[in-house]
Amino acid sequence: MPKNLTIASIVAPVILALFNTSIFGYQGLTSYFGFTIFALVVFLLSVYASDKILIPFPVFIFSGLVIYVSLHGVVLRNFNLTHYYWICSLVFLWAIAMNRENKIFAPMVFSVLSYTAAIESLIVLMQWMKWLPSKNDFFSCTGTWQNPNVTAMFLSMCIYAVLQKLTASKKKSFLYFTLTIILLAVVALQCRTAILAVLLFLIGHFMRKGSATNALIKKQNNLKPLLIIGCVLILFSLLLAFKFKIASTSGRLTVWKNSIQLILQKPISGYGIGMFEKEYNFFIAQHNNPSNDYVNMPYNDFLEFGVEGGIIAILLWFVFVVSVIYYRYKKNYSLLPVIAFLIIEITNFGFQAIPVFALFLLYCLLPENDGMKRKQAGNTLFC
Fold this sequence. Notes:
Blueprint: H1 3-9, H2 12-16, H3 28-49, H4 57-76, H5 81-99, H6 105-128, H7 148-168, H8 173-189, H9 192-207, H10 212-220, H11 224-244, H12 246-265, H13 276-287, H14 301-330, H15 336-347, H16 354-365
Helix pairs in contact: 1-3, 3-5, 4-5, 4-14, 5-16, 6-7, 6-8, 7-8, 7-9, 7-16, 9-11, 9-15, 11-12, 12-14
Main location: membrane
Subcellular location: Membrane
Membrane topology: Multi-pass membrane protein
């Protein structure tokens, strides 16, 4: 089988994870099966097409995490769809590792993601203008997912791909158009986390070596412009959190507080992978703790992992993230995709947002575009 066809198929699990339909009853199952099945397919294709396999160390650390998650399910006798999801995420990461050295891999992935983001953004904007029906009656626009936060976070992560193409491409009109409609779509979806991720990517892009902003800072020989930008970002974050959505922020803080109490009750073993929703709401009913609504996630992946898998799961995930940061730093790749996902999983949810998590796994080992690789480690923060 041609290697180019295998590489082209790598993005398929990410794209298929974007779709929600009622084929399986619950709409999210379409995304789940689309990702898991095609993750296995691209893994088998990659194994068949690969001449030699050199796997970077973050993949082995993630393998350890998934082994722990799987054994955790076996020991507690609650092996479920969430465990299969982690296993398929692992084989997807292995498939990425086996194709990452191909020269056309990064340019092809960035191109496909840019087109996908453009189409998804147009769908969001047409829903907002009432030209298309929303997939959720409670929101004016949601994109192809029922939850607008998932669509917004996915689009914000796609900004990295668009900016990579924008810097390397000579034909920029389509990319500027794509960037513009992504920004409009994220604003229309009203997701605070996605807006923060977009700001991070844009600031990183303008601060990169060779940009006008970077040259201005060096010319002035101080960090005042950077500090001003940082202060604006922090102020905007606080306004989003405490001014415009006070009730939502207050509710999440309550969920975080209760989740910490759950972790303290079973800090080592946890309650079981995929069991947060059941155990949290049982805890609320049992202890009569304050909670506004039925809660199905803590809006913080670290707390979710802590409740479900204990402190060991948190540590393993933390070590994996650090390993990815170290890997990309040593390769002189931008760290912004990792930082953006950290923002997402600390302030919202990353694991359950299937297309977002799949895209993060793709970015973990994805090289920079041709001509974009950094020659100095000091430039790795920026796009």
